[in-house]
């Protein structure tokens, strides 16, 4: 369903609204429109305008991962506001409730004002192999229902055995990919740890020459900065969070029938158990299966076991 010309943040599967719209609404009342900025690749400019209306946008001329995107946003904000705090978040996550999320951001802002580079971790509810994890160091403080720790390192997507060990230890949280820092602080960290990114984005910001941005290294903020920073702080979020990165998310957010099936759209079956069936504009009929994901749409058909849902990227390649 998520395609290059229409990625996940524009899909309307959850709560009858695109994830991008939900993200913008989540920030309403805390950030003014003048303080919100969408960083988007050039080819999604028209689609973003359709869904986000008058929101402020900064266009990446070439896709170059999260470190260059955040560096560009930091430079734009620094030019516009000077100092200040910068919150960074993906536009395609499910987060509830809004008040708890905003409370965590406010606590993160206080920590960022003291020089920390803040990331937000989520207490694991299952041994998820599709997420990255952040390890907790010693506790720094507590504010309402939010706890802060020194960060002790990141781990990319673990196997199932290690994921269970992480949960048992109690010292690992899911890495949400949400960050807070002073604008000047993150630019200093970029300049120190990913100087080629910093210089390339700086040249692009000064002259707008696309080739300058095209030569910027393709690197994530986690790998480029967060894993190296000595200022890392982790706020344990007291909110539910899901990056809805696989079809298994439907199991978590939609009501299952007596046989533990999730049926969405024109999807029906006989003798079907513990399965996810999703239909868009195509009648879907299934008979005598268990533990499957079956997706039918004009863009294609997918059939796989639920325990292999995380391997979809391998299949697409």
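^ structure tokens above, recovered residues below v
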């Amino acid at each position: 369903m998520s395609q290059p010309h229409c990625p996940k943040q524009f899909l309307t599967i959850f709560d009858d609204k695109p994830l991008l719209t939900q993200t913008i609404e989540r920030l309403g009342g805390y950030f003014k429109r003048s303080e919100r900025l969408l960083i988007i690749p050039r080819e999604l400019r028209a689609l973003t305008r359709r869904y986000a209306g008058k929101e402020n946008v900064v266009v990446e001329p070439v896709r170059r991962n999260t470190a260059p995107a955040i560096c560009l946003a930091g430079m734009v904000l620094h030019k516009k506001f000077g100092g200040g705090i910068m919150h960074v978040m993906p536009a395609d996550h499910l987060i509830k409730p809004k008040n708890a999320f905003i409370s965590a951001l406010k606590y993160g802002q206080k920590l960022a004002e003291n020089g920390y580079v803040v990331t937000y971790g989520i207490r694991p509810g299952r041994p998820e192999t599709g997420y990255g994890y952040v390890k907790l160091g010693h506790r720094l403080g507590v504010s309402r229902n939010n706890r802060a720790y020194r960060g002790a390192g990141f781990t990319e997507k673990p196997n199932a055995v290690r994921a269970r060990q992480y949960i048992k230890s109690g010292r690992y949280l899911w890495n949400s990919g949400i960050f807070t820092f002073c604008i000047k602080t993150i630019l200093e960290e970029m300049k120190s740890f990913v100087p080629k990114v910093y210089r390339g984005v700086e040249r692009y910001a000064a002259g707008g020459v696309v080739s300058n941005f095209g030569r910027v290294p393709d690197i994530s903020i986690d790998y480029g900065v967060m894993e190296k920073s000595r200022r890392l702080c982790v706020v344990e979020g007291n909110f539910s969070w899901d990056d809805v990165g696989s079809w298994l998310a439907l199991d978590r957010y939609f009501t299952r029938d007596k046989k533990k099936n999730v049926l969405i759209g024109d999807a029906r079956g006989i003798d079907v158990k513990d399965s996810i069936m999703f239909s868009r504009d195509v009648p879907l009929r299934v008979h005598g299966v268990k533990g499957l994901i079956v997706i039918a749409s004009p863009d294609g058909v997918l059939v796989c076991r639920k325990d292999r849902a995380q391997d979809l990227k391998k299949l697409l390649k």
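The chain has eleven helices and 16 strands.
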